[in-house]
Design goal:
It contains eleven helices and 13 strands. It is an alpha/beta fold. The protein is globular. 43% of the residues are buried.
Amino acid sequence: MKLFLSYIARRSLIALSLLCTPLSFALPTRILVYSGEGTDLSLVEGTINGLESTLLEQTYTIERIDAATLQNEPLDPSDIALIFIPGGTGSSAYAAALGETGLRNIAHYVAAGGRFAGACAGGALMARTIIYTLPNGQLLEVHHPNDTFLFDGIAYGPAITTYNSESSGQSASAPVFNWIAPDQADITEIVATLPESLHLYWNGGCLFVPSLHLKNSTPRAISSPNTNTCTTCLNYASPLHPPIAELVENQAPERPNNPALIIGQYGQGQYLLTGAHPELGTTSYLTQLFRNQIRGAITHIQAIGFAGSLSIFRLTDPNTTALVLALCLHRLGLQVRNWEQFIPSDLPF
């Protein structure tokens, strides 16, 4: 009995000492969502809604920021858990708003151990080269200096050739994507619940092709073992866009099919770039999008506008979309909510 009481006493002292010992470090809790020049308010709100409904409650503080924050304020990975740039009017508008200083600060933040996520225009923004086909057929190209990008390759958009930015019906689409489960051994059973083919909201986003797989391209010099590595997690089901297919080396090793979402490592940090919109997979956002597109279809008397909106409403399962976002944020090292709430439903909506 004395030995048992002595054991209990020792365990109690150990527990008390752990409680009284100050933590040597604290996990970063700030999440910065860019809402400045070039953004679309509905996409900013949808992004914040998606993050709030996916990340663990009472763990992170989401803040709206502008270009001045990224240009002038210190971006400390020990304080900032994630920088997120949502979709907007275009990656060239973002590049002009942030300038080389803002882009360089983001790259340095990630290299020091930070995390970055960008969707649609926000995802294309951090590629080495951005190529976009304008509605008039002209090509818009943006080339970033060596220390102002994360993904060493081309972000080419729109990824789907039938996209027309001037048509409300075409811009409201939910094409098929093929999911490639990232290596996450701790949640294998959860990953297995996601269907191989799924529908996500898409609005003219890009695909990502690494410089390694391009003809006549010199990949960025590797400054550390962790630089220039990326994994494709989501593919467009359609073939490569014809213009980009001509640039891809046919015999390139491990040639990607049509990368829509990639997770990469740059220096000591990680980044997530996507041409689709997994961050918008909330019922409230899709319902509002559906209503807006119907209004647009009625206003412009375009039956295709209604059909496109209806396809989003029916085919984009919010739970499936939320699970994609949760898996990606988990892969970046962020804490997400109970996995059970993300299990895809059997209903189309």
